[in-house]
TrEMBL record:
SUPFAM superfamilies: 4Fe-4S ferredoxins. GO terms for molecular function: oxidoreductase activity. PROSITE patterns: 4FE4S_FER_1, 4FE4S_FER_2. This is Molybdenum formylmethanofuran dehydrogenase, subunit F. Residues 8-37, 46-77, 99-128, 140-169, 172-202, 216-245, 265-294 form the 4Fe-4S ferredoxin-type domain.
Amino acid sequence: MLELREDKSHLYFPDKCIGCATCVAACPKGELVIGSVGAVARGLIDKDFIEKRCQACVFCGMCAKACPTGALAIRKVEEKEGAKEGSEEDGESYLHRAISPTVVDDKCVHCGLCADVCPQGCITVTDRELAQDGSLRVEGKTVIDQELCVHCGWCEAVCPANAITVSKPFSGTFFRDENVCQACRTCVDTCPCNALFNRDWGPGEIVEKVTHSLTSVLKTDRKACLGCGNCVIVCPVNALSDPYLAAGHLNELDNKPLLEVENGAIVVVDQELCGSCATCSLICPAEAIWLERREVV
């Protein structure tokens, strides 16, 4: 639960959350912030993808309506026999109403390929046996859990019988700018569809990518900085300085290469190492660090 008031509760279901930050963008009050998605997805820290400030929320429910996976909900709290119970308040999101379910039709041969490739493990194949009519046809049950399905299309792509139909909720093409990418693998680790891959890097290759030509400069406001160290932890340049150190313990590392908290405020140690990924500015709760375009002399 993110927040409880007298008549309403704001619920969060971490198992459904994919860390897409759609709720963060939808919140008109800026109440939701995205956490250390990469570190959480890797299991390096025990936290949730999103956090709530609990300062100005008006319980409008926009976050719940925008969430593509149903990970957020606003519920009315009712008093019943001395106990508080919650009833769903318009629980389905706009996307839930718009998305068509993934369908398996009669052409299915129950081969199990879809279950093998499903990144969410939401497909099960049971009761497989040869038909009793002597046709060598395989009968069985192939069931898709619609609550877990993220409509990635893997099952449809591998189905040899064209028996699966997937309606994707979003359209577009993923593009990675090789001049900016630091190969931090956050996108690879957090993608719920296993749609992104990184090739194996040779010794020194990632370091070479971090030292590409800079287009931006890190700016900080030491008066606004809370000294929380979130930017220090999520900075991929800091993380690369010790690949065996969990992100949650980066604050314990001496001589960090890019970002450090000194005397209670953030300091940019070496501007030239910054890869302009803006992860630090996204995670900062006080907007005390940001990127500005570098002037070309």
